[in-house]
Write a structure and sequence with these properties.
By secondary structure, this protein is an all-beta fold. The chain has 1 helix and 17 strands. Strands 1, 2, 3, 4, 5, 6, 7, 8, 9, 10, 13, 14 and 17 form a 13-stranded mixed sheet that branches. The two termini are 36 Å apart. 6% of the residues are buried.
Length: 241
């Protein structure tokens, strides 16, 4: 520690072995156009990661780099016996790399207590496509703002907003999305009784959309799981300990 600044530099090496579900040679019917099978030829993935972190008062910074040798990822190809059918399996890619940075700010100003997290990453992977090799490396960033308001009469208001930009992961390109959550909480009887109300994904924007290209296959998928939630809870603590 120097002048209140804490620095840390680390290196870590790890190995990820494929589980049985990825190694078995059985085929599973998914629908008339696709099936899934394992890959007995998978080898272990070896990861080398370097991380640097710095903390000063209410500021925290982390920089990272990861190199994944024999990266284990999903793999799609057309059935050799039926061109209209697609096989979903796993394969070893020569390498995958990731650069990342995160900045976190957390401080309390009287009744207002904000927390801001900024995260950015760039993942790099090469895959085979129809006309050769495609390098997928579109960076993305995340903004997560959590705001606590300590109001009079033991009322706590929390407003959270998260935005994720468009970017790539593996050979998938994800579309941008944002989430807005809000909750309010009040305590009674020396904090023994607590009433809270919470709403998640208020504007229904937590929808995952992505597309990808590999070999001679192009696909697009939209996942709308409708995670909007409104809840009310009442808790009485007979003994705070």
């Amino acid at each position: 520690m120097h002048n209140g600044i804490t620095n840390d530099l680390s290196y870590r090496s790890s190995i990820t072995r494929p589980d049985f579900g990825k190694l078995n040679n059985y085929s599973y019917y998914l629908n008339r156009y696709s099936y899934q099978e394992g890959n007995p030829d998978l080898v272990s993935q070896i990861t080398h990661s370097f991380n640097y972190s710095m903390q000063y008062k209410f500021l925290y910074l982390r920089l990272g780099y990861a190199y994944n040798k024999n990266y284990i990822g999903t793999y799609f190809y057309s059935s050799p016996t039926d061109s209209s059918s697609i096989c979903n399996t796993w394969a070893n890619y020569k390498k995958e790399q990731e650069l990342s940075a995160m900045l976190n700010i957390h401080h309390k100003f009287n009744f207002y207590e904000p927390s801001l997290m900024l995260y950015g990453a760039k993942r790099m992977l090469k895959v085979n496509v129809t006309d050769g090799t495609n390098s997928v490396h579109k960076p993305f960033f995340v903004i997560d703002s959590d705001n606590n308001f300590h109001l009079p009469a033991n009322i706590l208001l929390d407003i959270e907003y998260e935005y994720t930009s468009s970017g790539s992961s593996s050979y998938f390109i994800f579309h941008s999305m944002n989430i807005f959550n809000m909750s309010i909480q009040k305590s009674f009887l020396n904090d023994n009784l607590q009433l809270s109300m919470q709403v998640n994904d208020l504007f229904h924007n937590n929808i995952s959309k992505y597309n990808g290209n590999i070999n001679n296959i192009s696909f697009y998928q939209k996942e709308d799981q409708d995670q909007r939630i409104f809840s009310v809870s009442l808790v009485y603590r007979f003994n705070n300990y």
